[in-house]
Each structure stands twice: as structure tokens, then as C-alpha cells.
Amino acid sequence: MRYAKPTTTAQAVSLLNEEQGISRILSGGTDVLVQIKAGMLEPDLIVDIKHLEGIKDITLEDGGYRIGAAVSGAQLGEHEGVAALWPGVVEGFELIGSTQVQGRATMAGNLCNGSPAADSVPGLITADAIARIEGPDGTRDCAIIDIPVSPGKISLAKGEFITSIYLPKRPERASDAYLRFIPRTEMDIAVVAAAVSLELDVDGVCIKARVSLGAVAPTVLLVETAADCIVGTKLDDAALEALSVACSAVCNPIDDKRGTIEFRTHTAGVLAKRAALIAYGRAGGQK
Amino acid sequence: MKNIHVSTTINGDPTEFICNPDESLLDVLRNRLGLTGAKEGCGTGDCGACSVTVNGRLVCSCLVLGVEAEAAEVETIEGMANGEKLHPLQQHFIDGAALQCGVCTPGILVAAKALLEKNPNPTDTEVRYWLAGNLCRCTGYDKIIKAVQSAAAEMRGA
Fold first, then answer.
1. Is the pLDDT assigned to residue A185 strictly greater than 90?
2. What is the predicted pLDDT for the residue at B2?
3. Is A12 contained in some domain?
4. Contact B75/B11 with Cβ under 8 angstroms?
5. Which pLDDT score is estimated for A273?
6. What is the per-residue burial (b if ≥16 Cβ within 10 Å, else e) of A242-258?
7. DSSP H or E run through A61
8. Chain A closest CA to B153's CA: distance in Å?
9. B19, B57, B63: which to substitute to probe chain A, counting the most A Cβ within 10 Å?
10. How high is the pLDDT of residue A186?
11. Taking the model in full, what pTM does it have?
């Protein structure tokens, strides 16, 4: 295994693009170093991207925030601006691992690890966040929903890597929330997860919503049919019930020791309902 | 595999070492630098026995490559006491019998110190969540939480 520490994105791209063997990006390392240790992965080249300019920065851009690909969970959680604008994204990411893991783990890494149970991904999808990707053909922007392909697989081409994730600006009376089910209180992988982002009008009527589910299909899902159930409502019981049914309807989970198909399908609806209520309250909605 | 030369600072001391690119910071500390306070429990970032800080951030040194320590500031348990004088956390762990076998203790002390620097007056719940990544199979945690709280009280008074 060779270790490279490029200082420009061009260097990083050419290292990744020219490598004939297996290459991996090293940012927080909380997935990739575990995989190497477990013998699941034997890379020929590790490209440490933490020395690229701006890669550890959180910058205000057009009313939203650009989060560098090497920003850790600890750093993101301490940023009051991001936590105020996108609390659901931040709370999802902060649920990952321990304090120690948060000291290193990154959102871009969580996304690129390709897990359907990745805690930061449903929030990023409901936020309509955009990944900025550098590669042999230059720079491109890609919606988060288009990055995961299947468990452990993402859509980035050879030589490409994410340099930042952009969380867009949002109007007043808008917020989001993320909930997951785990059988303990900390340090576990989501059995089921739901994120809801919504926008209210002055009367507290939901005028825009996005709903996402984690760990109930091979990739994190964006559930437009569920969002449609709450748009135009004040999240009354009937709307929430419809949201819950719509969420359960799209679930296609695995059956394992951590949760049965039946349990995951049911719980997805329950969590979506609860996350919608939290987001509604955060957006200033009165129940 | 080509060895890499690394210049770093450990507990305030400029330090140089040579390591393989796939060698963890934990292995470098223990096997190359003789700093055996950090322990290898799981080796996968679950148990926290290898906790150190890198540039002020609490991390598992088993999930950091040795080469990543280049130009960084690393703090380990060996830098916690001031000469012969124990840190209040160390003293309260002894006084309160907050350890039995002791394998998890260096990691818990490093993690608790990082917590008190950020939050000098945590609630029990905050201490428990902060230390959720530090597993102890002996104590049942109660005495650990109490020792952290008594050290925090002493440090606030100091």
C-alpha cells in the first residue's frame, strides 16, 4: 500500500485516475481503515485528501453552506450556522459512532461508503444537498440522491472524488428532522431511519416537503408519494397517517437479526410521522 | 512497502519516527515510541481504549494512520500528569476506585479530559453520552461517572 498526500485537486485526480490497482480516498478513515483492518479491502493506493485547500472549511455561499469533504462531525456540530439552518442534517450525522468517531468521520465519507443505513444520507437527500465532484473531466455537481447505487456502490467514475457538499439556503418557516431506530441508545447502526424537511406558509400550512427513508431498501429512498400526503396540510392526524402508509408502502428491506421486514416496514412509517412532527415544530408550526 | 518518515509533536515533544504507510498511529505509539498507555481493545474504533487527541480532537488512534501524524499535535495519556503530580481525573479515578483491570482507563481519562475542556460542568447524561465510545467490562460505569464528576468539581474550584 502506498500513501499519497496531494495538495491540489488536480494531483489528487491524476493519482486516482492513473492508479491501475485499487485506490481509496482517506479522509476520516472511520470506514476505510476498518475495512483494511478487517481484510475486506487491500488498497494499492491511499489518497489522503485532508491537505487540499478548503477541504476542512465550512463556508457561507448564497445563503447556504458549503461543507468541505474533510469536515468532521465534531467540527460540523460546533458550527451554529449549519445547525440552525439544517438541524436534521446535523443531528443525523452526529448520531454516527462515538465522540472519537465524530472527531474524524465526514459526511462525504458516510455518503461514499454507500451504506443504505448511512445516518447522514436521508437528511442530505431531504435537504436537496449537492455534492461537488472533481474528476478527470473537471468539476461537476451532483444531487445526493444520484450518488448511492447499491449497498457499498456509488456512481462516481474512476478518478472522481467529492470535495464538498452544499446545503442550500432555505426560507423562513422551514426546518428538518432525522430519527432512527436502534435497539440501544448510542453506538449502533440504524435498523430503520427517516428524515423529513418541510416549509410552511404564514398560517402553518406545509407548502413543500421532502421525505427520505434509510435502511429499508438497497439505497436510501426519496419518497415523493409520502411528501405529497403532507403538502397542503397542517400535519393533522389524517395527513400523518397517510404519510406513514405511503412510507411503509415503498419499503423493500432485508430481513435480518437486527430487524424483520415487517418491523422495518412498520417502523419506517412511525418514524416518518414523528420526524415530520419534529420538523413542523422546528419550522414554527403550532399543533 | 516503503517506509515513511514522519515529524510530529507528541505531548509537546517534537518527535520523529519511521513507519509503514498502513501502520496505525496506535501501533506507532506502542511499538515504535514505547508509549504503551493507549491500548488496543478492538482495533476497529468501537471500544475507545486507544483514545488520544490529534490537533485537539478526540480520536481512536487505531483508526488513524501513523503517517497522518505528520505536523500534527498528538496528546496521549503519558502527557496527562504534570511530572509526579497526577491530573485531577487520574487522582479521582484512584480515590473513587473507578477502575478494576485498567485496560480501558487510559482511554477513558483522555476522553474525559477532552470533555471537561469543552464542557467543565457536564450533567451525568452528558458524561455518559460523551463516553459511550469507551467500553469498560469491569466497573459497570457508575464509579467512572462519579470520578469524572468529582474531578470536574475540583477543576471548576481550582
1. no
2. 86
3. no
4. yes
5. 98
6. bbbebbbebbebeeeeb
7. strand A58-61
8. 22
9. B63
10. 83
11. 0.96
CATH for B4-79, options being 3.40.50.300, 3.40.50.1970, 3.10.20.30, 1.20.1640.10: 3.10.20.30
Whether the per-residue pLDDT at B158 is higher than 80: the answer is no
Number of domains in chain A: 1
Query: What part of A 242-281 touches B (C-beta under 8 Å)?
Result: none
* Paired residues of A3 in beta bridges: A46
The CATH number of the domain holding residue A201 is 3.30.390.50
Residue A253 lies in a domain: yes
pLDDT at A96: 96
Q: CB-based contact (8 Å) between A123 and chain B? A: no
Question: What is the DSSP code string of A253-285?
Answer: ---BTTB-HHHHHHHHHHHHHHHHHHHHHHTT-
A-chain residues within 8 Å CB-CB of B69? none
A-chain residues near B57 (CB < 8 A): 72, 74, 103-104
Residue range A48-91, pLDDT digits in tens: 999 999 999 999 999 999 999 999 999 999 999 999 999 999 99
Q: How confident is the model at residue A174 (pLDDT cuts 50, 70, 90)?
A: very high
* CA–CA distance, A165 with A167 (Å, rounded to integer): 7
Report d(CA B74, CA B60) in Å as an integer: 12
A150 CB within 8 Å of a chain B CB = no
Phi-psi group of A29: left, alpha or beta (phi > 0 → left; psi -120 to 50 → alpha; rest → beta): left
Q: Mean per-residue pLDDT for A196-222?
A: 98
Closest CA–CA distance from residue A206 to any residue of chain B (Å): 35
CA atoms within 13 A on the CB side of A76: 34
Higher-pLDDT residue of A187 and B81 is: B81
Say if the Cβ atoms of B24 and A33 lie within 8 Å.
yes
The chain-wide mean pLDDT, for chain A, equals 97
Give domain limits for chain B.
4-79, 88-157
Q: In chain B, whose CA is at the least distance from the CA of A50?
A: B68
The interface pTM score, or ipTM, of the predicted complex is 0.97
Q: What is the CA radius of gyration of chain A?
A: 19
pLDDT tens per residue, range A223-258: 999 999 999 999 999 999 999 999 999 999 999 999
CATH number for the region B88-157 comes to 1.10.150.120
User: Taking Cα atoms as reference points, which of A35, A103, A70, A184 lies closest to residue B51?
Assistant: A103
For chain A, say whether B40 makes contact (Cβ under 8 Å). Answer: no
Give B18→chain A minimum CA distance, Å.
14
